[in-house]
Amino acid sequence: MNQTNVQYLETSSPRAVLDAVADILPTLPGEVRKAAAYVLENPNEIGICSIREMAVAAGVKPNTFVRMARSAGFGGYDDFRTVFREELRHRQADFPDRARWLQSLPQKGELSGLYGDMAASSLANIEQMFSSCDAANMQSAAQDIVQARMTYVLGVGVGSALARNFAYLASMALDTVRAIPSDAALPVDGLVQAEEGDLLIAMTIKPFRREVIEAVDLADRMGMTVMAISDTPAAPIFQTAKHRFVLPTETPQFFSSTLAIHAFFETLMAFVIAQAPASAVESIERFHERRQMLGIYVDGG
């Protein structure tokens, strides 16, 4: 990597640095790849933990993190870490009012401690989603959806409901978006009619689902465009994806939060409609007019 790239990375955002690490992850040797994967899965520790603490947690030698940083285009690990320390310093100064509000919640009832934790994690997830997914990336992804012959939205488990909701909303304006898999089918079954150049939106979070990874591998072999969504840049579905979105899922609960993923899909839908042809608005109007005519809606006024 040339000196221009080094200077660019050292003055860029943590997200740009993590994206650079994710790009080179498949090419790194074993121990260095292990360190890089740990960085991608634990970015919040980079700015607050020493290199020795990071090495112990990752199960590698401290010098391995130096090699990882140099592979990513930095002069050394200190330069790599500085990007994250600066972000941490600015973030801590930005939200004193929010911190005071959160600290006041435990005074409002016996379960308010949990309420405060949930409020904190929910706000943090939404904030992180919007700060990491910039408008240019969102616009590019939405444009590919609008222009694709067919878009397949893949989610299993809790992701199934997210995929179906997005496809349902899109169907009001476009007839080229379909959720997969159908009932009792495998994700790869849903791609049987897919063609080269079609778009696959695939999501899987830790622990990753094998059938989603297999569907992405198939889509790649078929020449489809892949948009990958996960909660870590180290996700296997990111390796060949054109669009990669890392969304936070942290929560005090016993399951992963999908709040940020919901917000992401709502925002993506807004960008899709903004770039869709005028006929999309006409389709939405016909959709609601038909429901009104059939008496599906009830006037609560």
Commentary on this structure:
It is a single chain. This protein has 301 residues and is α/β, with parallel strands linked by helices. It has three domains: 3-90, Winged helix-like DNA-binding domain superfamily/Winged helix DNA-binding domain (Arc Repressor Mutant, subunit A), CATH 1.10.10.10; 102-132; 135-293, Rossmann fold (3-Layer(aba) Sandwich), CATH 3.40.50. It has helices spanning 3-10, 14-24, 30-41, 51-58, 62-71, 77-94, 96-104, 112-132, 135-147, 158-171, 210-222, 259-275, 278-293; strands at residues 151-154, 177-180, 199-203, 225-230, 243-246. It has a five-stranded parallel beta sheet with strand order 2-1-3-4-5, with helices on both faces. Helix 11 (210-222) links the parallel strand 3 and strand 4 (225-230). The longest helix has 21 residues, at 112-132. The protein is globular. The termini are far apart. The relative contact order is 0.10. Residues 1-8 have low confidence and may be disordered.
